[in-house]
Amino acid sequence: MDLTEVRERAREKMKGVCGVYKVCDGMPERLCQGIKYGKPIGIGGVSTGASFTANVEALDQFKLKTRLIAPHAEPDMKASFLGREVAFPIFCTSMSGVKISMGGGIIELEFARAVMQGCKAAGTIGFIGDGAETFEDRPGLQAILEAGGWGVQIFKPRDQKILLALIQEAEKAGAIAVGVDVDGAGSVPMAMKGQPVFRKSIEELKELVQSTSLPFIIKGITSEEDAELALETGCKVVSISNHGGRVLDHMLGVAEVLPRLVPLLKGNVTITADGGVRTGFDVIKMLALGADFVMVGREMIRAAIGGGPEGIRLEMEFLSKDLRKAMIMTGSNSLSDIDERIFA
Ligand SMILES: Cc1cc2nc3c(=O)[nH]c(=O)nc-3n(C[C@H](O)[C@H](O)[C@H](O)COP(=O)(O)O)c2cc1C
Asked: pLDDT by residue (tens digit) across 274-308?
């Protein structure tokens, strides 16, 4: 199996939901945006899709330049995430709701397994989301358990009591870390399925952080105000993300927001960024803008649907190979070398 085959299979299985285009940008003419107005959000962005598109456009604005006159060295892409060594700083981000969002080409547990096992085989870490559809079965935690705890669970901002119990379950599954996507408060699929989600106060977030021995992740930060408050909670990781443009229309692209938030967060917490990342060249841009780790969403859905764990492994291989190439061409020998000097 190769990535072309994976994408062809995904195109077949995701008919009517995702065109598996060369460019995944949520533009109005794309299949995912053409199914709006009362119909499910699918794999697209909320409303006009402007926040989804902004993620891709924000990354496109940054142009790379070469720096080649230097002694040759093999780029060192290895990184440590919460004490775990990974081969490169790219993760599969937290996603869920495959049946509602992704055309039913794969069931939730199969998706979670593909993410955990495929990422592990590639030498990196898979995150999993928390969906409305099969909430009772905890497919994410099941897949993490099966992967020997090698995975991260991000829960929706549900009722506090439910969340506290879920966090205990994540501990039992042996997860690397646990967290909440605070921007899930705007989740359309959760609302559709009658599973209430809420904004979380600083006190509630502190309670969640203190309830567990696992490192805690707050995902879905896009403002200075929230970044500063997130720091006060004692969380270990802040994920800069607009949920792939699925929760609020007309937001800035993540690559635009990231450099504003990095000075507030750097050195205090680990920073991840996601939104619009499609290649290893996008990855190096996010790293140069200050992310410690870069997460990938929609490409991973197509990889899982088209090829299961092997599809995810191949997609990770593709991303990391291009990151290596980008590092060689921009004169970056190690991850700590990557900064704004790579931009033209
Ligand atoms: C179909 C779909 C389902 C998602 N479900 C979740 C989820 O359950 N929890 C979560 O934290 N984020 C969820 N996200 C957001 C992703 O974690 C991530 O922020 C986003 O997909 C990154 O943008 P990209 O898809 O352009 O790479 C979902 C995204 C998609 C496309």
From this structure: 999 999 999 999 999 999 999 999 999 999 999 99
**Distance between CA atoms of residues 162 and 256, nearest Å:** 35
Tell me the pLDDT of the chain averaged across its residues.
94
Indicate which residue's Cα is closest to atom 4 of ligand 1: 95
338 close to 287: Cβ distance less than 8 angstroms:
yes
CA distances from 34 to 43, 44, 232, 249, 256 (A): 11, 9, 41, 16, 26
Considering the entire predicted model, what is its pTM? 0.97
**What CA–CA distances, in Å, run from 331 to 36, 67, 279, 336?**
44, 5, 18, 12
Angle at 90 between CA 89 and CA 91, to 5 degrees: 125
Q: How far is the CA of 324 from the centre of ligand 1 (A)?
A: 25
Closest protein CA for atom 5 of ligand 1? 95
Query: Which domains does the chain carry?
Result: 79-335 (3.20.20.70)
Residue 297 CA, ligand 1 centroid: distance in Å: 6
> Average pLDDT, stretch 129-139?
81
**For residue 24, which atom of ligand 1 is closest to its CA?**
26
- The CA distance from 252 to 1, in Å, is 37
Please list every protein residue whose CB sits less than 6 Å from any atom of ligand 1.
43, 55, 93-97, 101-102, 129-131, 154, 181, 184, 219, 241, 243-244, 246, 274-277, 296-298
Atom of ligand 1 nearest to the CA of 243: 19
What mean pLDDT do residues 55-78 have? 97
